[in-house]
């Protein structure tokens, strides 16, 4: 059985906020999304160029059409634009009993007004009292409560006013605009305060408010208690901001997909690498190519999600010679590799599609053969490493990979280095996937 959540909101042509953010959020939580569009905005990451409001009667009809047939387990409101739409929405929503999350949208991140000045009273009188939870940011909470908000104590006061004086069941005053070192949201419900905290992240913030309130609605639709729904929404929005893709010239949009895409991609990486390693250990003449320090074989998450070594899967304890065969010491784990993880992360800065690499013992013969086979080969020489990079912990590999790529001004299949005092010479084979790396390896050693 699938749960259904409705969004009553405006459209953002930039796909960052509004209805578009809400639907992506619903989808990320496995909820079927329904829409009642209130207004069409011509918008991008920088500005709102035009606003065209939908006839209030058509807004009401959209709500009725889906509620009467499909059913609504929870709903949210976003941009309501004008007083007539607000009245139509309030009147229609009252006919049903689903929980309502109210995101009192007033101004876009770019500064454009999304609610007419003369519609404020209607919002306060007609919509707020219907809310299971209201989710204002700082300026919105100031407008609703009539008090200035400078700190958490003020945020608590405002949340209390919204509940006790304006009649919402609960309120969460968001701390995205409070200028604190953490993103702290103050929640007032059942006469008690609660705080939801997350580190402030440098990422993409267009559509944060919309996605956050939609995440609460989605989780209410799934039958979660309100406090649990808010907790999950907070985790979801922090992740979405952090993993936002930098598109457009203004505020880039939240990435709602991160929530489902990261676990899905982790599984793909894990499966693919495990299968490749099974094939690798079955190669007969492999032991002679295993370096003294051991071999590893890694596969990174897609570029958007590959930020640190923990986003790169490899073999725990490496792959070692074992009698006349080779053997992975441990299983495939994210964060298991250090050197190769740094190599692939650097390589991906140049060629994001190349996500896998394996290391082999160096031999001049293999390098010659690689060139004869038409593989592109480059190298770095540790003796050329600048002093300031040597002094930097973990700087050698990124410098080396960068140097090797820049040397051929292209995409090497193989990068080798001749080693230095205490450093074993090594060959690295790169490829889009572990299967591509395996193919190149087999060409080379067969
Ligand atoms: N840079 C950030 N890092 C972490 N969390 C953030 C950041 N910015 C906002 N948040 C969180 O995101 C959620 C949405 O809050 P925010 O105050 O940004 O909403 P908003 O101003 O209504 O957004 P919108 O611009 O879409 O209307 C809150 O939980 C807030 O704490
Ligand atoms: C349509 C729409 N709704 C809400 C917001 C909130 O930022 C926006 N920018 N655009």
Automatic annotation (TrEMBL):
Domain (Pyridoxamine kinase/Phosphomethylpyrimidine kinase): residue spans on this chain: 12-255
Catalysed reactions, as listed in the record: 2-(2-carboxy-4-methylthiazol-5-yl)ethyl phosphate + 4-amino-2-methyl-5-(diphosphooxymethyl)pyrimidine + 2 H(+) = thiamine phosphate + CO2 + diphosphate; 4-amino-5-hydroxymethyl-2-methylpyrimidine + ATP = 4-amino-2-methyl-5-(phosphooxymethyl)pyrimidine + ADP + H(+); 2-[(2R,5Z)-2-carboxy-4-methylthiazol-5(2H)-ylidene]ethyl phosphate + 4-amino-2-methyl-5-(diphosphooxymethyl)pyrimidine + 2 H(+) = thiamine phosphate + CO2 + diphosphate; 4-amino-2-methyl-5-(phosphooxymethyl)pyrimidine + ATP = 4-amino-2-methyl-5-(diphosphooxymethyl)pyrimidine + ADP
Record-linked InterPro entries: Aldolase_II/adducin_N_sf, HMP/HMP-P_kinase_dom, PM/HMP-P_kinase-1, Ribokinase-like, ThiN
Gene3D superfamilies xref list: 3.40.1190.20, Class II aldolase/adducin N-terminal domain (3.40.225.10)
Enzyme Commission code(s) on record: 2.5.1.3, 2.7.1.49, 2.7.4.7
GO biological process: thiamine biosynthetic process
Pathway: Cofactor biosynthesis; thiamine diphosphate biosynthesis; 4-amino-2-methyl-5-diphosphomethylpyrimidine from 5-amino-1-(5-phospho-D-ribosyl)imidazole; Cofactor biosynthesis; thiamine diphosphate biosynthesis; thiamine phosphate from 4-amino-2-methyl-5-diphosphomethylpyrimidine and 4-methyl-5-(2-phosphoethyl)-thiazole: step 1/1
Keyword set, alphabetical order: ATP-binding, Kinase, Multifunctional enzyme, Nucleotide-binding, Thiamine biosynthesis, Transferase
GO cellular component terms, semicolon-separated: cytosol
Organism domain of life: Archaea
Family of the protein in this entry: In the N-terminal section; belongs to the ThiD family. In the C-terminal section; belongs to the ThiN family.
Domain Thiamine-phosphate synthase ThiN: 272-442
NCBIfam families documented for this protein: HMP-P_kinase (TIGR00097), PRK08573.1 (NF006346)
Pfam families listed in its UniProt record: Phos_pyr_kin (PF08543), ThiN (PF10120)
GO-annotated molecular function: ATP binding; hydroxymethylpyrimidine kinase activity; phosphomethylpyrimidine kinase activity; thiamine-phosphate diphosphorylase activity
Designated name of the protein: Bifunctional thiamine biosynthesis protein ThiDN
């Amino acid at each position: 059985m699938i749960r259904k959540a409705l969004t009553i909101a405006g459209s953002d042509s930039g796909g960052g906020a509004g209805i578009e953010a809400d639907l992506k959020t619903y989808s990320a939580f496995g909820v079927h999304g329904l829409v009642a569009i209130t207004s069409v905005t011509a918008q991008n990451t920088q500005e709102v160029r035009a606003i065209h409001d939908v006839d209030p009667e058509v807004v009401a009809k959209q709500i009725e059409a889906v509620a009467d047939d499909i059913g609504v387990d929870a709903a949210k409101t976003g941009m309501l634009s004008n007083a007539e739409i607000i009245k139509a929405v309030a009147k229609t929503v009252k006919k049903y009993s689903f929980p309502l999350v109210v995101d009192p949208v007033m101004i876009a991140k770019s500064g454009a007004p999304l609610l007419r000045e003369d519609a404020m009273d209607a919002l306060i009188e007609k919509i707020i009292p219907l809310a299971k939870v209201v989710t204002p940011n700082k300026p919105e909470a100031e407008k609703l409560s009539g008090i200035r908000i400078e700190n958490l104590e003020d945020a608590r006061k405002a949340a209390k006013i919204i509940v006790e004086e304006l009649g919402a069941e609960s309120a969460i005053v968001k701390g995205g605009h409070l200028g604190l070192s953490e993103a702290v949201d103050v929640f007032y419900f059942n006469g008690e305060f609660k705080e939801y905290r997350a580190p402030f992240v440098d990422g993409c913030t267009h559509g944060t408010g919309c996605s956050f309130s939609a995440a609460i609605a989605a989780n209410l639709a799934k039958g979660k208690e309100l406090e649990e729904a808010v907790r999950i929404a907070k985790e979801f929005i922090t992740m979405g901001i952090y993993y936002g893709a930098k598109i457009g010239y203004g505020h880039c949009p939240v990435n709602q997909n991160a929530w489902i895409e990261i676990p899905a991609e982790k599984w793909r990486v894990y499966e693919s690498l495990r299968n490749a390693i099974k094939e690798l250990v079955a190669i007969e003449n492999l032991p002679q190519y295993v370096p003294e320090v051991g071999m590893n074989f890694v596969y990174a998450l897609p570029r958007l999600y590959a930020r640190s070594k923990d986003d790169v899967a490899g073999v725990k304890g490496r792959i070692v010679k074992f009698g006349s065969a080779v053997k992975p010491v441990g299983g495939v784990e994210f964060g298991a590799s250090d050197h190769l993880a740094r190599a692939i992360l650097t390589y991906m800065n140049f060629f994001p599609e190349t996500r896998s690499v394996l290391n082999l013992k160096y031999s001049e013969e293999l390098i010659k053969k690689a060139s004869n086979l038409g593989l592109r080969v480059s190298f770095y020489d540790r003796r050329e490493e600048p002093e300031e990079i040597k002094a930097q912990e973990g700087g050698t590999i990124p410098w080396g990979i960068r140097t090797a790529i820049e040397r051929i001004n292209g995409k090497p299949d193989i990068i080798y280095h001749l080693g230095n005092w205490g450093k074993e010479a090594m060959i690295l084979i790169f490829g889009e996937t572990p299967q591509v790396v395996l193919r190149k390896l087999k060409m080379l050693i067969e």
